Amino acid sequence: MSIKVDDKIGTVRRAIPVRDARALFLRFMPGIVLVVLVLAVALANPLFLRPNSLLTAADSAAPLLVLAAGAMLVILCGSIDLSVAALASMCSVFVALWVPALGGWAVLAAVLVGATAGLIQGAVHVVAQIPSFIVTLGGLAVWSGIGLVASSAATVGVEGDSLEWAFTRIGDARIPSAALIAAGVAVLIAAVFWFTPVRRWFEAVGSAEPAAVLAGVPAAQIKLAAFTVSGACAGLAGGLLVARTYSGAPGLADSLLLPVVAAIVVGGTAITGGYGGIGRTVIGVLIITVLRVGLSVAGVDPSIEQIIYGVLVIGAVSLTIDRSKFQVMK
Amino acid sequence: MSVPVLNVVDLKKRYAETTALGGVTFEVRPHEVVGLIGENGAGKSTLLKSLVGLVQPDSGRIELRGNAVKLRSVAHAGSAGIGMVFQEQSLIPNVTVAENILLGAEGGAVRGGIYRWRELARRAQVQLDKIGCLVDPMAITDTLSFAQRQLVEIAKVLAIEERTHAEPVVLLDEPTSVLDSDEIEILFAQIERLRTHASVVFVSHRLDEVMKVADRVYVLRNGQTVGEFVPGQTDEAELQRMMIGRDAQGSHYHEDAQVDVSAKPVRLRVSGVSLKGVCDAVSFDVRRGEVVGLAGVQGSGREELSRALFGAETLSSGHISIEGEVKRFRSPRAAIAAGFGFVPAERRREGMVATMTIAENVTLPHITTVCNGPFLDRPRERRIVNDWVQKLRVKAPSIAASIATLSGGNQQKAVLARWMVSGDLRVLILDHPTRGLDVGAKSEVYKLIRTLSATDVAIVLLADSLEETIAMSHRVIVMKDGKVSAEIPAPVSSKPSPLEILERMI
Q: Which residues are in the ABC transporter domain (chain B) (predicted)?
């Protein structure tokens, strides 16, 4: 029945304290969870707090952070990008194929390919007005398929040291270069968000697109930018993965999709858009990484990881979702 | 006198800072048609929603045949004997009329989970016969006209009778709003027939209709019943005053602050603007500092036109010009760059971004005024926003507070402030700027409009009521079926009467 219950005049007065409490909870919860997790893992195995294990953990978190940083932008402006992992897999194949000709520049080429793929998805979503969920779900299959065709469905090995820069340790502190690259991506996004009005545009589009458009926010361009950056990040993540496995392969990054979404929502970015940020995403990625380390320290079967991610995504979304955006939950 | 079928006593409902119902009392006697009349925002829809269990009142009583009831849902209200014919119809379009009429009350028409179509049709026909409706119960609902569907809704509500074994109370919510005049006559005839089976509450904001159809009429204003009368025994001017209230005089609208603009040059010229299927070759001028009211019923095209002026809809022909310069806006962004501002009717959905702060909302359209190149200048933003918040007397703990925490009136002031920060506002389009605001906040918005008018901003106003249109405007452009049907001057000394404008609207 099309009975519309008028919600224009909500019960604002009563809702504010609850909302504030919820907002506070959401703001600090991810940080608290991270600290608790680190302490728990350290209790189980004190060796975890040694610099070497921490750096190894940071190294392993790098591809996840790069993917999550890009995908977060798409979610922040109210859409979703389910194709990031498949796109990273496809790009890993291209990097491996192109290294003989381009050397280390193959990664840059993959970033450009990823950006183009993201732009195409964004354009289909914005221009043809197709839900991003569908566009990127279709994209997921398309990029996987292209990766399979380009690699003849086989792992493509990489010879030589032209990708060494993306998987090495730097200086006496032995900082992993991949972690520095990922941190660079996060810092770049954070700087753009802090120093320019871009963050407000993302939030306005994600939170109330009609209002954003009537306030002159270039909503279509914002969304295109989000998808393009997300694609570029997927390309970079593909490059990082090739560097550490000395090979590119269709399906190489596929298992990262759920951890990416889990990291974004566990960090506190609302899946409905309009609320979130890069700092939260970094914390989310750290939570997922420590969780993964912790599970292996505790001797949990890796097959159970997927179950935990699945439950985590649903649980985190149930806390952060803005239900007032939906008249009916589909 | 017989016991009233429905007796409502001192019903109250508050939403945060606004009182939707501040004490409504009325009664409906058996086989009576009672009219409820009031302006937009008088509390009619909240009242109806409380009577069918969609809204829970804070205090007061609803009595049915002498028994106090608490209504929890539409279904519950139905089994208690109250049914509503919704303004936006509630029928399911892709199933048969009979299924709609008996939805949830199929009884013997379903056996073992399977429809017995013949029985279903027979039972539906019983309801349709009550109002002499000739619609085939086996017709698919969305093949019917709007008027026919409305009759089906009435028949559906009458099915309550069989369930409760008593005659129901039928609430008709603005039933004439989308009907043409022939259909309205038919509806009125149906209401006469309906009263032999039920008691009827007829809700409308149109005085003439209520006078025609009701036995007794209650007037609602600001959430309260302010009077009761019998049609034919009260004069229309008296009723108008009852509906609008005594405070709706010149001072409420700051009419003494209406400036003379007859010598000012034209700022906005709308030349032969057409929107596909909505309006056709609309032309008018707005002078510097002039407030032009756009009047028209729903479907007159004034809402779409106002959005099109702001670049939010595409013109199919015609153009607009500012100070003689032709403009073709392809987006609101382009209109904003040319000095346009727009206050949309749905503030919470379109007017503001509820998750952002007051400052972020105020500077959103003109972000460059608080930027150095591509970089935000936060101290400058704080200074400018604080300045406007004080000038407009926005009551807020801080400009860093979420705009959602403000009252409706203060939110609207913040929304208006966003168009002033650039210092180069030339044309302001106001779509129902006082909707949902209480009386005091309305008056402040009116004052702000006068101030903007005095600083040469050309203003296009789509007001909430005719009274507001007349009081606030220098000139009223009346629209009917997508065309300008009249242009009526409204200087302070000789404001037109609502009737003069109404005649040209319908």
A: 6-247, 261-506
Question: Out of B17, B45, B333, whose CB is closest to A218?
Answer: B333
Whether chain A has a CB inside 8 Å of the CB on B398: the answer is no
Confidence of residue B133 (pLDDT cuts 50, 70, 90): confident
Top mean pLDDT of A140-149, A293-302, B1-10, B229-238 is at A140-149
Spatial contact of B473 and B459, defined as CB atoms under 8 Å apart: no
- The reply to whether B265-339+430-506 shares the fold of B6-244 is yes
B222 CA to centre of own chain: 14
Q: How far apart (Å, rounded) are the C-alpha atoms in residues B494 and B279?
A: 30
- Entry pTM: 0.78
ipTM confidence: 0.85
Residues 152-181 on B with a CB inside 8 Å of A are: none
Residues B80-89: pLDDT tens digits?
889 888 876 6
Q: Best interface-test mutation with A: which of B364, B385, B424 has the largest number of A CBs within 10 A?
A: B364
Cα B312 from Cα A29, distance rounded (Å):
41
Separation of CA A186 from chain center? 11
Please give the CATH number for the structural domain made up of A26-322: 1.10.3470
* CB of B183 closer than 8 Å to CB of B82: no
Q: Answer whether residue B246 shows pLDDT above 60.
A: no
- Give the model confidence (pLDDT) of B13-26 as tens digits: 887 666 788 889 99
CATH 3.20.20.30 is right for the domain spanning B265-339+430-506:
no
Domain boundaries, chain B: 6-244, 265-339+430-506, 346-425
Question: Does A12 contact B352 at a Cβ distance shorter than 8 Å?
Answer: no
Instruction: Provide the β-strand partners of residue B325.
Output: B322
Q: Do A6 and B49 make contact, defined as CB atoms within 8 angstroms? A: yes
CA distance A327 to A329: 7
CA count, 13 A, side-chain hemisphere, A152: 3
Q: What H or E segment, with its residue span, contains residue B211?
A: helix B207-213
On whether the CB atoms of residues B338 and B325 are closer than 8 A, the answer is no
B340-367 pLDDT tens trace: 999 998 888 899 998 899 999 999 999 9
pLDDT band at A326 (very low <50, low <70, confident <90, very high): low
Is the model's pLDDT at A11 over the cut of 70? Answer: no
Phi, psi of A166 (to 5 degrees): -90, 0
Tokens in use for B167? 């005659």
Cβ atoms of A139 and A121 closer than 8 Å: yes
Enter the tokens of residue A114. Answer: 């990823």
d(C-alpha A300, C-alpha A322), whole Å: 34
Would the pLDDT of B505 be above 90? no
Cα separation, A134 vs B361, in Å, equals 32
In this complex, which of B350, B374, B404 lies closest to A214 when CB atoms are compared? B350
Domain range list for chain A:
26-322
Into which CATH architecture does domain B6-244 fall? 3-Layer(aba) Sandwich (3.40)
Mutation site for B-interface testing, chosen from A4, A12, A192, A221 by largest number of B Cβ within 10 Å: A12
* Residue B41: pLDDT over 70: no
pLDDT of residue A133: 95
B344 in contact with chain A, both atoms CB, cutoff 8 A = yes
pLDDT reported for residue A322: 67
Is the minimum CB–CB distance between A210 and chain B shorter than 8 Å?
yes
**If residue B284 lies in a helix (H) or strand (E), which one and from where to where?**
strand B279-287
The DSSP annotation for B115-144 comes to E-HHHHHHHHHHHHHHTT----TTSBGGGS
**Distance of residue B309 Cα from the nearest chain A Cα, in angstroms:** 12
Query: CA angle, corner A278, sides to A277 and A284, nearest 5?
Result: 95
